[in-house]
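Obj: model holo form, ligand = 2'-deoxycytidine-5'-monophosphate.
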Amino acid sequence: MDYISVAVDGPAGAGKSSVSKAAAKDMGFTYIDTGAMYRAAALFAIENGIDIKNNRKNLVSRLDEIKIDIKYEDDGQHVFLCGTDVSEHIRREDVSVGASDVATIPEVREKLVQLQRNMAKSANVIMDGRDICEHVLPDAQVKIFLTASVESRAKRRYDELKDKGLSCDIEKIKSDMLYRDKNDSTREVSPLRQANDAVLLDTTELSFYEAVEKVKELIRNVL
Ligand code: DC
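Output (holo C-alpha cells):
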C-alpha cells in the first residue's frame, strides 16, 4: 500500500507543530515532530556535559549511545531518550538552542533522518521540521513551507509561556529565535529554506483555525 506523506518545513515558532498536529488529527494521519528528535539529542549532550559547539567530536563518538524512540499515546507523540520519556524536558529553552547547534552536525542528521524515513514508510504522515520537503521526504505528495514574521512568532511563544505561568522576556525569545533562524538557514547540511515545489503558507495574518483548514485543503487535493 502506498501511504501519503505531507512534508512541512519552516522556522521556529511559526506554528508548524500545532497546525500540523491538528490537521493530522482531523485527517487521521500520524503527526511526526522531527524537531523533538534533535531536541532529544541536544538533551543527551547537555545531560552528559558535552559542549555541543566546541566539542562536536565528543558527541559524534557517542552517537550509538543516543537511543531515541518515538511512541504514540492518547495525547500524541512521546519522545524517549535512552528509555526515559523526555517529552517535557526537551521543551526547555536551553534545549531549544542546543537542538539548533546539534542539528548542524552531519552525523547526527544522518542518524535521525534514517529514523524519520522509516516512520513514513508505514503510515499516512504529516512530518514537520526544516529539511523534510527537500531531503527527508522528497517524494512527499504535499509540501508546505509554513512561516510567519519573527514578531508574531515571538509573541505567540511569549503568550504560550505566559499561559503556562512561566516567566519570560519577549526580547530574549525574539533574539533566541533570530539566532536559531540564522543557524538553521545558514548551516552547510540541509539548511532551512523553502523547497521550489513547496506551497508557501504565511500564518502572520491567519488564525490557527484558518491555517489548519488550509493544510487540510492541500491534503484533500491529493486524496
Ligand atoms: O522544530 P523545533 O524548534 O522543535 O526544532 C529544534 C531544532 O532542531 C531547530 O532549531 C532546528 C533543528 N531541526 C532540524 O535541523 N531539522 C529538522 N528536521 C527539525 C529540527
